[in-house]
Amino acid sequence: MILASANQQTEIEIIYPSSDGEPLAETYVNLYAILVTLEILKQYLQGQQATVLADQFLYYAQGFPKLRVAPDVMVIFNVVPGSRDNYKIWEEKQVPAVIFEITSEGTKEKDTGYKKTLYEQLGIKEYWLFDPKGEWIENKLKGYRLDKEVYEEITDSRSEPLQLRLEIESELIAFYREDTGEKLLAPSELAQALKESEEKAERLRRKLS
Fold first, then answer.
1. pLDDT tens for each residue of 56-108
2. Where do the Putative restriction endonuclease domain residues begin and end (predicted)?
């Protein structure tokens, strides 16, 4: 496993950038998948000691700001909830538990090579690859779970750290709670459900008045 703390030198002159000016995603489809996944998981973990970050630098070696990666979505447990400009493992004392990469033919080599190896070495419990356009993953979704420090392919579509079951719905990942089977609603679905609930309440009010 890669150690987050490299040395004890001071960081007064070391800058850890929060952006490199690169676009968030290659296409709108990929961008939408990132943002919806982010919002669904943020809502699901609300009230827990956890945070969900999207396309933010993950620094894994103190004193070496060039040693970084920007996962599309990462979930970290046992940390203070809320956003960060970037995430430094040696400060937070926790590595992400789950990482999602919204992949494509153009990022396949990096996602299955460099990133998979790095996440395995860092001790990321689960690594999920979602190919919303189906460019190279036949079923669009492929996951890996750490087993004795080595990634093994996930065959049951379950995320153990999240306690969720993952399915594909068109160009998005659908998440279902393992305890109740309930689907976690996307932002647009939440808005529609709220609207329908308000309309139902209004009809009931009129009926009773």
1. 999 999 999 999 999 999 999 999 999 999 999 999 999 999 999 999 999 99
2. 40-164
Amino acid making up residue 166: L
Per-residue DSSP letter, 183: B
The H or E element that residue 122 is part of is helix 114-122
Tell me if residue 141 falls in helix, strand or coil.
Answer: strand
- In angstroms, the CA 44 to CA 98 distance is 14
Q: What token pair was written down for 116?
A: 């998979």
Both structure tokens of 176: 């279902």
Q: What is the pTM of this model?
A: 0.85
Element (H, E) at 32: helix 28-44
* CA 77/CA 140 separation, integer angstroms: 26
> Buried b / exposed e across 156-188, counting CB within 10 Å, b at 16+?
eebbeebebbbebeebbbbbeeeeeeeebbbee
